Amino acid sequence: MPPTVNADAEDRSPNKIYPPWNDETVDALNLYQKEGEFHPFTCGQGAKGAHVGGISLVATAAGWHCPVGTCYYTQNWAWTFMAGKNSDPPPGVS
Ligand SMILES: [Zn+2]
């Protein structure tokens, strides 16, 4: 697929993976969040109440979610490298 330059280009990046994620991928993503050589994904709700300092998102088979009980924030993509996969097709994609 040739690279395209438009507003949606980032969301179509082959460097991203999308749910559903298998157990292996979920574990890898959560490990990444914990050991974070880079800054972990944090809740997009920003610094509000329980979110002061940033809340690291938690990966599940259905994608990321904020661990704060009253927060609805979710995110449906991750960087491929976060799952430790360089060239494999994204899990769940056939
Ligand atoms: Zn949140």
Describe the structure.
The protein has 94 residues and is of the alpha+beta class. The chain has one domain (14-83). The protein is built from one helix and five strands. The chain has one helix spanning 23-35; strands at 16-17, 58-60, 63-65, 74-75, 78-79. A three-stranded antiparallel sheet has the order 2-3-4. A hairpin with a 2-residue loop joins strand 2 (58-60) and strand 3. The two termini are 16 Å apart. Mean pLDDT is 79; it is low at 2-9. The structure holds zinc ion. Zinc ion (ZN) is lined by residues 43, 45, 51, 55, 66, 68, 71, 73. Residues 43, 45, 51, 55, 66, 68, 71, 73 line the site of zinc ion (ZN).
Q: What is the tally of beta strands?
A: 5
| N-end to C-end Cα span | 16 Å
Q: Would you tell me the structural class of the helices and strands?
A: alpha+beta
What overall form do the CA principal axes indicate?
A: globular
Average pLDDT, rounded to a whole number, is: 79
Kindly report the spatial arrangement of strands forming the biggest sheet. 2-3-4
Identify low-pLDDT runs: 2-9
The number of helical elements comes to 1
Small-molecule components bound:
zinc ion
Largest sheet: 3 strands, antiparallel
What are the secondary-structure elements, in order, as H or E? EHEEEE
Percentage of residues assigned to helices: 10-25%
Give me the oligomer status: single chain
- Radius of gyration, in angstroms, nearest whole number: 14 Å
Strand content: 5-15%
Total domain count: 1
